[in-house]
Amino acid sequence: MCKFLNIHRSIVYYHINRIIVNNPNSKLTETIKVIFRNSRNNYGSRKIKKELQKLGYQVSRRKISRIMKENALISNYTVAQFRVHSNKYNESKTKNIIDRKFDKRDNLEVVVSDLTYVRVGKSWNYICLLIDLYNREIIGYSSGKNKDSKLIEKALLNCKYSLKKIKLFHSDRGNEYDNKLIDEILETFEIERSLSRKGNPYDNAVSEATNKILKTEFIYQNNFENLEQLQDELQEYISWYNNERIHSSIGYISPIEYRRLNNNSKFCLV
User: Which of 68, 89, 114, 130 is least enclosed by beta carbons within 10 angstroms?
Assistant: First the structure.
């Protein structure tokens, strides 16, 4: 066409590049791509909109969705999920003190926990998370080959905050949680115990939701050859989760940012 119209190709390229530079949608598209990649391909249009607002953009979710579709930005959450196997329950008389009241909790007032599974090599391994209901921060975690009380113990003893500051510890009725070893740890640090009702996952909904996030954003996106690899990459993911990932339940900011904004410097690390 350049030869036919007797136009030099450099003129055409100049005008094309000028259109791209002056096109605000081009800059917006690149910004959306950066936000999406920084979220580890996890954010959908809702969270991307919140991040754009922080940068001064006012863009509708419909437009964001269109740009994502045009650029093949497919969130990990579009992948079908599968459910964990049923757990064994005990008949402990310990009450469900938390009673699904997850919100508006003080710092370290309530810590909830649950287990999930992950394929490592040719066998199943397990991950235990401790979550502070105050800011949804993962304050302790562990991973290992066995689904037992030792895994819970390791997560508790690796907690980044003093166990003495935790008021209540809530979990399901799995035998891994309700046993002599965990009882002794909680009694030592004077932490009150709360257990979900038998076979009711909604009583531990925050832990269930966090495990779903962990599976979608971390477990399903990686292949782990050995436990050491899992532990290294889990540590990196949780650091990102706490420091950078925005959470809708705390106003679309990260758990650490939420803690900082609410002046909690009085809480000392172990």
Answer: 89
